[in-house]
Specification:
mainly alpha, 10 helices
Amino acid sequence: MANFPELVVLSAIMGLSIYLSLPIVLAKSLASRTITLLNAVAIGILVFLLADVFSDASTIIYTNPASPYLADPEYAAAFVVASVACFLVLFFAEHRSKQSTLSPRGLALVIAAAIGFQNLTEGLVFGAIWAVGIVGLLTVIFVGFFLQNVTEGFPITAPLLGKNERKIGVLAALFLVGGLPTVLGGILGYFYNSPLLDVTFDALAIGAILYCILPMLRVAFRPAETPDASYAKQRLIYLGILAGFVLGFLVNAL
């Protein structure tokens, strides 16, 4: 218990590093091309997060020593149920009224919640390893999670770029939704850790990320005023998505 306060402090540093992106996303004047590019980068980061979260879950789901391709029934069922349930809950919550799409603030909240689920599992891992005391691995995990969380502010703010809702109070609250679960996960992981719990939260994150990527793509590929402008916009989106994916990979690999 003597090291518990240090765990809380380090978990907070990891989770709240998401706020380091605030100066960029709060820039007063952003050109339309810049907004398009940042949205595309955000989509690329989310695509990488999908792969990253599933890779974490798959190490638990596929643990049969006789066949690495045979899934554990309990973990596989938990993963499918949690991811599908999260997606359907968001779907029915959005379509409970005649409003056809989420508002920009609503979409930002879904993205923040998805990242929060993912960060919760990161906190669980960090807390569990902290309890065991593997110092070298702790350092690697801390640096990796810290750098990854810095980039997660961009997907959260992407739906609000160029909108009046892009106020510091709103963004601060959304970033807290995305970053605070790291602290909660660290505390929980210190006292209790379960592979089933990790798989469930990974699945919830995947369901939410899948759901919010779809409207982001629809908005991103909305035609511009002219065919030439639409072509230039599409090229920028492709490059931005690739850049976001590579950025997520590089940050995670450090």
